[in-house]
Design goal:
single chain; 702 residues; alpha/beta; Leucine-rich repeat, LRR (right-handed beta-alpha superhelix); 9 helices; 41 strands; disordered N terminus; disordered C terminus; binds 2-acetamido-2-deoxy-beta-D-glucopyranose; leucine-rich repeat; membrane; repeat
Length: 702
């Protein structure tokens, strides 16, 4: 009988050591009721045992006199309902149940308690509409100051009656639910200290309530990603305490009124991107001396950049993409914007040169000027932008690409460089002195109609993962040294005048997707693992595109080594000989285009074993014999094989006689489903040819 006496002694010792901290029977009972409401307690009951001191239970904190003051059970894997019994804990001030799987309703007793100050039930699956009719017997003093019900499944109208009076709320986060109807507005009737409201990612519609103008202490107001579709109410601009004003991706209309705007002197973040605002950026923007982020992208705004912007010396990010802004960039003196890291002017109508003063913004990380009417040469002083990671100059009328590359090669941190549809008709710089670009990973010099050859200096860019040189007029061979670009997994040199044979050395490229991009820039890690932002997802295509050139000779048998390829396009060349059977070992291939060559012989029947192949085009060659059947081939149509008069089979409606090959079994449904998904993903590639990478890449990079 040693064990029970030791246990007894332990209990005695503990109670002797801290006699005052053991919790009351009543409090323990409230907690056990909560435990009983759980359908999955994930081991919590090992610690929460009846008869033991609940102040020592996991997640419980007591005051010196043994009253439960805090329950912290975030990320504990709990499921079930939240028991209203927690409201019986008469000293509970902080309750944090975030990141679990609680479902059902949020007991109104917790909201109307006159003790609880912090209530965080975010990231659960609570769904029941918060109660609308709290009885008037509720005590007048409601203590709740911070309420986080974000990322649950709440629906319906926001129960604003809850907040009409008696509340002293300071912070409310109700983002990422499915609340509908009007945005609630009456927070500040009773609470003069209301400071933060986040209603983003809901379905609120109509106008932003003018009642928010009464919130004299409001610092943060976020309601992005809703359906708010009226104008910004004038009253909102009375709230001079505002530091963070964010309504992206709504349908807001109207203009930014200069006279009102200047009241928001404390504003640090203004995000109104993705709305339907029009009008100009008011000159009074210069009064917002604390402004760090100005985001007005994707609206219908026009006019020039106000020179007063130079006075916002704390600006870190300016995003004006997708508007109708025009005029010269020189209207702003960028010299004073020494903190600027991101300048995004994609798709506007700016004219003139790049102002010299931009080259003094030495903290610039991302500069996107694509899709404007800028012209002239880049200054060699662009080499001052030592922090630059991302630069896009695409679709402008810049001149002297040699000069531009010489300036940029010393931007040691440059990772992504887009030069598309600019420097039209110039010569590809072949100068060996272009020897920098140590960290360049993605390079596009495409749609420029450049003459010349694929330049040798590219062979020094050992970190390249994607290289786009399509739609130029490059002549000469495909150089064998491309294989030394060990990290490359996307090569598109289509639509040029390249001639000669496909070098077998090219087939030695490992083509393995790894990429490391700085997540600060334009949400670049669209391609990367969202949690680590370093690895590309396997969904990203691994591409070799040599289409629309003047290549001759045979398809090297060594093609079978490029096992990771997902898309191979050799179409529109003058390739001859047979389709090498080794192609069939490219088991990841989803798209194969060998059309419009002069290939002869039979289609290797093993091609029908390539389970992921969702599109094939061998049309307009001189192939002969039976078209393989079964497998993926059961899904292809006539157009994949047209223009080969000697091919036979059901697909082309030409009988093969005795040489009919045995059918391969059709793939399982699972594989068919995957194939369909790939087919959708790649139909763009197939349908639009080279436009594919523009869409994928420019959508995110510009
Ligand atoms: C806890 O133990 C007490 C006394 O043993 C008992 O009365 C009570 O019902 C128990 N509570 C629960 C929830 O089991
Ligand atoms: C609740 O806990 C989570 C996880 O530790 C934490 O991120 C959050 O800030 C807490 N909530 C409050 C209101 O302190
Ligand atoms: C409103 O209050 C009544 C009585 O107090 C209650 O029966 C009813 O369930 C409440 N309705 C809602 C939606 O909470
Ligand atoms: C919930 O929101 C509050 C207020 O914004 C915040 O302090 C808390 O960290 C949030 N909780 C989580 C889990 O993010
Ligand atoms: C705003 O949206 C509602 C529906 O969500 C619609 O009825 C109303 O006409 C819209 N108002 C404007 C100004 O577009
Ligand atoms: C910047 O502010 C100063 C004083 O605050 C003012 O005199 C000047 O005109 C402003 N500059 C511009 C370009 O608006
Ligand atoms: C731009 O501002 C800097 C200082 O902020 C000043 O020295 C320079 O003269 C200004 N340039 C122009 C063109 O106004
Ligand atoms: C861009 O500016 C040019 C002249 O500067 C004008 O003709 C053209 O209509 C503008 N385009 C748009 C979309 O505003
Ligand atoms: C360049 O990148 C490195 C590594 O990310 C960083 O430590 C360094 O500060 C950057 N240089 C500049 C000038 O921003
Ligand atoms: C581009 O610039 C060149 C020379 O500066 C000029 O001749 C040409 O008209 C410009 N093209 C467009 C579309 O602005
Ligand atoms: C282009 O830039 C190079 C190098 O900076 C320079 O030598 C050359 O004169 C420039 N060409 C033209 C036409 O301006
Ligand atoms: C393709 O190459 C052949 C000879 O190899 C040449 O006659 C023809 O002009 C070239 N076509 C083009 C478009 O360069």
């Amino acid at each position: 009988m040693a064990a029970p006496s030791i246990a007894l002694a332990t209990v005695l010792l503990l109670s002797l050591a801290s006699p005052a901290t053991s919790c009351s029977e009543q409090e323990m009972s409230s907690l056990l009721q909560f435990l009983a409401g759980l359908s999955e307690h994930n081991g919590l009951s090992a610690s929460w045992r009846n008869g033991t001191d609940c102040c020592k239970w996991e997640g419980i904190t007591c005051s010196a006199d043994g009253m439960v003051i805090e329950i912290f059970l975030a990320s504990r894997g709990l499921e079930g309902s939240i028991s209203p019994s927690l409201a019986d804990l008469s000293n509970l001030q902080r309750l944090n149940l975030s990141y679990n799987s609680f479902s059902g309703g949020l007991p109104s007793e917790l909201l109307t308690s006159n003790i609880i100050i912090f209530l965080d039930v975010s990231f659960n699956q609570l769904s029941r509409v918060l109660q609308q009719n709290l009885s008037s017997s509720v005590p007048d003093h409601r203590s709740l100051q911070v309420l986080n019900i974000s990322s649950n499944l709440f629906t319906g109208e926001f129960p604003s009656i809850l907040w009409e009076n008696k509340f002293n709320l300071v912070v409310l986060n109700a983002s990422n639910n499915s609340f509908q109807g009007w945005m609630p507005s009456s927070f500040c009737i009773s609470s003069t200290s209301f400071a933060e409201l986040d209603l983003s990612y809901n379905q609120f519609s109509g106008s932003i309530p003018s009642g928010l103008g009464k919130c004299s202490a409001l610092r943060v107001l976020k309601a992005g990603h809703n359906n708010l579709n009226r104008t910004l109410p004038d009253e909102l601009f009375n709230v001079s305490s505002l530091e963070y004003l964010s309504f992206p991706d709504n349908g807001l209309r109207g203009i930014l009124d200069g006279a009102h705007m200047m009241n928001l002197r404390n504003l640090a973040i203004l995000d109104l991107g993705g709305n339907m605002l029009n009008g100009k950026i008011p000159d009074s923007i210069g009064e917002l001396k604390r402004l760090k982020e100005l985001r007005l992208g994707y609206n219908d705004m026009f006019g020039g950049l106000p020179s007063a912007l130079s006075n916002c010396t704390n600006l870190i990010a300016i995003d004006l993409k997708g508007n109708y802004f025009s005029g010269k960039l020189t209207s702003v003196n960028f010299t004073s914007l020494i903190n600027l890291e991101v300048l995004d002017l994609l798709y506007n109508n700016f004219t003139g040169n790049i102002p010299e003063s931009i080259y003094l913004c030495s903290k610039l990380v991302a500069l996107r000027l694509s899709g404007n009417n800028l012209h002239g040469q880049l200054s060699l002083r662009i080499a001052n932008l030592k922090s630059l990671i991302f630069l896009s100059l695409s679709y402008n009328n810049f001149t002297n690409i040699t000069n531009a590359l010489h300036g940029l090669k010393d931007c040691k941190n440059l990772t992504v460089l887009f030069v598309r549809g600019s420097f039209i008709g110039e010569a590809m710089p072949e100068d060996e002195k272009i020897d920098g670009f140590q960290n360049l990973q993605i390079l596009s010099i495409s749609e420029c109609s450049l003459s010349g050859t694929i330049p040798l200096w590219l062979s020094n860019l050992k970190n390249l993962v994607m290289l786009f040189l399509y739609m130029n007029q490059l002549r000469g061979p495909v150089p064998a040294w491309i294989k030394s670009l060990n990290s490359l997994f996307y090569l598109d040199i289509s639509h040029n005048n390249l001639a000669g044979e496909i070098p077998t050395a090219l087939m030695e490229m490992p083509m393995l997707p790894t990429i490391l991009l700085d997540p600060r820039v334009f949400g670049l890690p669209v391609y990367a693992d969202p949690s680590h932002q370093t690895r590309i997802t396997s969904a990203f295509p691994i591409v070799l595109n040599l289409a629309y050139n003047n290549l001759t000779g045979v398809i090297p048998q060594e093609i079978g080594q490029m096992k990771s390829l997902t898309a191979l396009n050799f179409s529109y060349n003058s390739l001859s000989g047979e389709i090498p059977p080794q192609l069939c070992s490219l088991t990841n291939l989803q798209v194969l285009d060998l059309s419009n060559n002069i290939l002869t012989g039979a289609i290797p029947s093993a091609l029908s074993n390539m389970h992921f192949l969702s599109a094939i085009n061998v049309s307009n060659n001189d192939l002969e014999g039976p078209i393989p059947t079964g497998g993926q081939f059961s899904t292809f149509t006539n157009s994949s094989f047209a223009g080969n008069p000697k091919l036979c089979g059901i697909i082309v409606d030409r009988h093969c006689g005795t040489a009919e090959p045995p059918p391969v079994p059709t793939p399982s449904t699972e594989k068919t489903d995957r194939r369909v998904a790939f087919a959708i993903a790649f139909s763009v590639f197939f349908g639009l040819g080279v436009l594919y990478d523009q869409i994928v890449v420019s959508r995110y990079f510009g």
